[in-house]
Amino acid sequence: MLVSHGPGTAVPSIMSLPFEPQNGPASLHALRHSVSHIMADAVLRIFPEAKVAIGPPIDHGFYYDFDLPRPLTEEDLPAIEAEMAKILKEGGEFVCSSMSREDAVARLSAAGQEYKVELLDDIPEGEEITFYDHGTWSDLCEGPHVETVKQIRTDGFKLLSVAGAYWRGNSDKAMLQRIYGTAWWSKKDLKKYLAYLEEIAQRDHRKLGRELDLFSLNPDFGAGLVFWHPKLGHVRRKLEDWWWELHEARDYWPVFTPHVAGEPVFRQSGHLQNYADMIWAPMDVDGRPHRVKPMNCPGHVTIFNSVRHSYRDLPRRFAELGTVYRYEPSGTLHGMLRVRGFTQDDAHIFCTQAQLADEIVDVLKLVDTILTTFGYEYTAYLATRPEKYLGTDDIWEHAMAALVEAAGRQELPLEDDPGGGVFYGPKIDFKIKDALGREWQGPTVQVDFNLPDRFDMQFNDADNELKRPVMVHRAIFGSMERFVGGLIEHFAAWFPVWICPTPVSVLPITEEQIPAAKELLDRIRAAGFRAVLKSDGPLRKRVRESELDKIPYMAVVGGREAENGEVNVRVHGVKEQKTLPVDDFITALIAKRASKSLEYALD
Ligand SMILES: [Zn+2]
Ligand SMILES: [Zn+2]
C-alpha cells in the first residue's frame, strides 16, 4: 500500500492548541490579517523600494511575502517590530474602499507593485475589488480586518521567523522573503503561545535525537536514510516484538519478500504508471531493469498466488515489517518524519466479499489497542473515490459499505474526506493527536479490488467456481521511522518503561557501596531491563547526568540501603524519594512493563 509521505502529511502541523484563546478564531483571523498589513507598512518604511506580494493570516499567525533588495535574517525582525509599534501608536482606522479594475491597476502600477497587479488577474471579472487602508498604507485585500489600529496590542504580536518563498510557489519565479509572525488579543495569550512553541522546539525529535544519541542521517549514505542508534534500536525492537505478538494472536503470518524486483512487477501492479516519479530510478541486472520496492503489496500477492486457494483457506493474513524506498524531493526531507527509506508495519488480508466487514472490524480493534497504548487520541476519516480511479462503481460502493459497516459496529465515528481515496479503493485513515495537541498522520486501512484483478488472484469458492478475493492493505504504525520520530516528540524522549532504552541508573553513594550496586544492577538486568551503573564523581553530578540521559529511575544505594537489601529510588517527575526493598522495586518495574504504563510514579 501507499502510505502517503506527500506534502502536508508527514510533518505535523499544529492543528489545535492545548488552550482556548479569548474570542473566536474568526476574530483572531481578522486580527492577524490586520497585523500582517501593519507589518507590510513597517517593511515598506524600512525598505521603500520593497514590493509586496501576499500576506494572509494562517493558523496561529500570519505571513507576508516581500521582494527586497537583500535577503532578511532574524536579526532584522526587532527593527521591523519597532517600526510596527510606531505605526500602532499613530492609530487610525481600517477603511475599506472598492474600486474599478482599471483604477486598481493604475493605482498599483503607479506604486510599482507589480505582484499586486498580477494578483488582480486572479480576481474574477465582476467580483468586487477592495482595498483596505490604514494611515498612509493601502493594500489590495478582501478583508476582514479589525476596525481600528488601536485594537492591536503592541505586546500581543511577535515576528517569529524569515524564510525564502518563491512567488506563487513556483521555483522558476522570483525568490521572495517571507516573514512569519503571530498575533493574539492579549499579552497573556501571546506568552502562552510562545511557551508552546518553545515546548515544541524542545521536543523536536531531531534535537533530542542528536542530544540523546538516538538516530542520525549521513549524507555519504544518502539523504533521507535513517541510522537507528542503539537506544532507539532498543525502542524499535520492543515495538516490533509487541507488534508481532499482537499479530500472531490475530492469525497474521509473517512473510519476507525481496527488496528488489524486475520492472514488470510494478507495471503489472500499476504503480510504475501511477507513481513513476516516486519510485527510485531503475538499475540494470542482466540487461533487465529492476527497481527497489516502493511497497510490499506485489510481494505478498506473489506469495498468495504461488498456491491454489479454497474458500476454506480464507481469510489469509500476511504481515511484514517491510522496508521500502521512495523518492522524496530533497527540500521536503525532515528528520525521521519525511524520509526516502522506511519500514512499514505492513499487512495484507485476502478474504471473500462476505468476510470483508469482519476483517475491517478486527483491524479497527487493533488500531485502537495500539494507539491507546501510547495515550494517543485519534480521529478516523473515510476517504472516498477520487477523480481518477480503477474499478467499477459497484465495486467501490461495496467496499465503502463494508468500511462504514465496520466502523458502525465499532461505534467509531467517521469524518468525511471526500475524494481522498487512492486510485484503487476507498480507505479509512486515522489522524492521531499527540501530547501537544498536534495531529499526525496515523494508521490506514485500504480496501483494494484492483490488485486482485491485475494479478489475476483466485480462490475456489464453495460452489466450485473460481472467484476473486478482496485485498485489504493496512499499516498501523505506518512507518517505523515516522511513528518512532513522533513518539520521541510525544514523550519528549521520556519513553514508557516497557520500551525505555535505559529505565534505571544505579548510583552507589560512596565506593563502599559499589559491590552492592553491582549486585542490584545484575538483578535489574536479570529481570529484563537495561540499566547503567554510574559510580564516578559526586552523586549530584551523576543524578544530573541520569536526568539528562532521560533515565526515569535512579536507584541510589547508600550504606543503610546496602545493609538492609533496600534501595532509595528517585523517580522522574516525582518529588519524594522512596526507600523500598530491592524486591519491591523490581516487582514494581515488572508491573509497569506488563501494563505498558504511561506513568513512572511507583504505587
Ligand atoms: Zn499494500
Ligand atoms: Zn488584509
Task: Give a structural overview.
This protein is an alpha+beta fold and 603 residues long. The protein folds into 3 domains: 25-185, Threonyl-trna Synthetase, Chain A, domain 2 (Threonyl-tRNA Synthetase, Chain A, domain 2, 2-Layer Sandwich); 233-256 and 295-491, 2-Layer Sandwich (BirA Bifunctional Protein, domain 2); 504-595, 3-Layer(aba) Sandwich (Rossmann fold). 35% of the residues lie in helices and 25% in strands. Strands 11-15-16-23-20-19-17-18 form an 8-stranded mixed sheet. Strands 1, 2, 3, 7 and 8 form a 5-stranded antiparallel sheet that branches. Strands 25-24-26-27-28 form a 5-stranded mixed sheet, sandwiched between helices. A hairpin with an 8-residue loop joins strand 7 (157-166) and strand 8 (175-183). The model is unreliable at 1-16 (pLDDT under 50). Residues 1, 295, 297, 348, 473 line the site of one zinc ion (ZN).
Q: Tell me the Rg in angstroms.
A: 29 Å
What is the assembly state of the chains in this entry?
single chain
Largest sheet: 8 strands, mixed
Low-confidence stretches: 1-16
Strand order of the largest sheet: 11-15-16-23-20-19-17-18
Q: Total number of β-strand segments? A: 28
Shape assignment: globular
The CATH class label of the largest domain is Alpha Beta
Amino-to-carboxy terminus distance: 44 Å
Number of domains: 3
Total of DSSP H or I helical runs spanning 4+ residues: 18
Mean pLDDT: 92
Helix/strand structural class:
alpha+beta
Helical percentage:
25-40%
Instruction: Using the coordinates shown, work out and report the CATH topology of the largest domain.
Output: BirA Bifunctional Protein, domain 2
Do you know the CATH architecture of the largest domain?
A: 2-Layer Sandwich
Corresponding CATH superfamily of the largest domain: Bira Bifunctional Protein, Domain 2
